[in-house]
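Reading a protein record of the kind used here takes only a little practice. The integers have meaning only within a learned vocabulary of local backbone shapes. With that in mind, consider the following protein and its fold in token form:
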Amino acid sequence: MQSWVNKLWYQGHPLRFVLWPLSLLFTLITSVRRQLFKLGVKQATKLPVPVIIVGNITVGGSGKTPMVIYLIELLRKQGYHPGVISRGYGVEIDGVRAVIAGDSATDVGDEPAMIVARTQVPMVVGAKRVAAAEKLLADFDVDIIISDDGLQHYQLARDIELVILDGERRLGNGMLLPAGPLREGAWRLNHVDHVIVNGGAATANEQAMALAPASWQPVSVNHDGKGAPTINDSLVAIAGIGNPQRFFDSLHSQGYQVTQSQAFDDHSTYSETVLDELATGRLLVMTEKDAVKCRDFAKDNWWYLAVDAKLSSSFDKQLLAKIDRLVADK
């Protein structure tokens, strides 16, 4: 399914013109919704602490999760106590719930499970982000909230909007859903605080972000950490992220010998049997997001590559200066 959608949105498939009338309807519905909030017919809920939205205007992965982790670490270094809220994509949650280290991706979502496993940050997930934020403030010592996605969730008032773009795919064919990948038109980029480009070339009005490989980690929680992949090993690579090819290309650029690669749909659920047969005794490597869904049944020859987001010091200074002003005002 994801392969077909990629052809439609990013490779000029002619079916996009057949779907164009549905895109017009989507544009109308979203425009009306935005205007209701702008005119005050619908009310956005303001919180007593700064709220940072890390989102995008395209469907699919663009690098939001590494950016959220980057912000958590940046804010902690400045003495802040950040907390995170998320929808918890692909899971059914009754109301809202806190995420704790060790929670299954099937219960809280793969990205929340990954974020908490990496940072131990206070985090609450649920379809209603305002309710999630209120629980976060009530139950934890939090003085700033990061929303993982939610740019179009206008019920939650926000102080800073960061949009992440895939630098390779950019805006695809430039059309709105379902003919294209856009949730909102390209005009939306002119109304956010920063447009952050993950990979590729950033323009003068954008911030460049790179994903730097950190270290190989065993997927199994019971692993002794020995036998990490080297450039001399024959690897089987899998990826179930928004742009799997980015992971495969990263491995090749580092000199690893990937003898077989298998892309899965974003947020895929994995089977122990399928992955074991795919590896056939070779080292199986994956992304950190994939690993949180496999850790309960992982084999000793399964590894994931952690990555860290890298941004400029000028971006850090601009962002922190605005946050300091927001904190003083609130």
The chain has a mean pLDDT of 93.
